[in-house]
Amino acid sequence: MSPSCRRRSLGALSIIAVALGLGPTGAAIAVAQGKGKPKPAPATVTAMPTVSVAGLRVVMPGLGEQGTEIRAFNESSGMALALFVKLSGGGIVEMVNDKSALTSLTDDTGANLLEEARFGPFPKVTKDGSAALIEVEARGRPSQGATSISAEGSIVLRSSSGTTVQKVSGLRLESGKTFKVGTAIVTLGEVTAQGDYAGLTLKLSRSTLLTIKEIRFKDAKGQPISTSRTGSGWSNDDAEVSYQIPAAVKTANLELDVWQNLKEQTVPFNLKFGLSLR
Length: 278
Fold this sequence. Notes:
It contains one helix and 21 strands. The chain is mainly β and 278 residues long. It folds into two domains: 127 residues, Immunoglobulin-like (Sandwich), CATH 2.60.40; 99 residues, Immunoglobulin-like (Sandwich). Strands 13, 14, 15, 16, 18 and 19 form a six-stranded antiparallel beta sheet that branches. Strands 1, 6, 7, 11 and 21 form a five-stranded antiparallel beta sheet that branches. A hairpin with a 5-residue loop joins strand 9 and strand 10. The longest helix has 4 residues. The N terminus is likely disordered.
């Protein structure tokens, strides 16, 4: 649903790396009754996410009526900067656009490109959670003669240490039936038959939805039921997830992959990169 665009790699990237801090590993050894006490284990080091440039799009004003009849890439005049966010070992669950911030966007002539700058909607995360792509859009464009752009700000993401499986047995697929994810309640909405298939909606809080990686439907023998997720959405903290299931299925066992140790991280970035498109 995010605007599509062609992206080319950028040369001459200069990226501010995030250093990893190590806790103290040494300790004095005390001797008691002729036996040495073991050294304390080194502090665990958690990898920090890194941010790098993925692509740049610059669009001149369009032509025709009100400058909108024909436009490059079918986009408004301005620029878009795509950023990779990487987390060694994986664990990225989602990007939090409404808490991320772009504080500076300039070119090397000193021009301020921050006009109407915002993080674009619907960032993408890889299946293994090791990387994400987020876009910054602005009305400003690099000045004539500019050779590089600098961008500074912070990206907020949610990450997890992994998942655990929660099982729900013998759930009747009827409107009003409920089950729990942890302590949160999930309610089945209206089940609508559509020929050989039926539409099923799960109603839950958005905060609960964000803890669920995947839901699998199985029959009484533990065999997968052919289902497809057809959509999801939310308004404030009210969320829904929709599935298509065989109309003949009236009861199912659910397996939910639930994120563990969810945490929110703020990742600062300070990038300078050239405009050569190679």
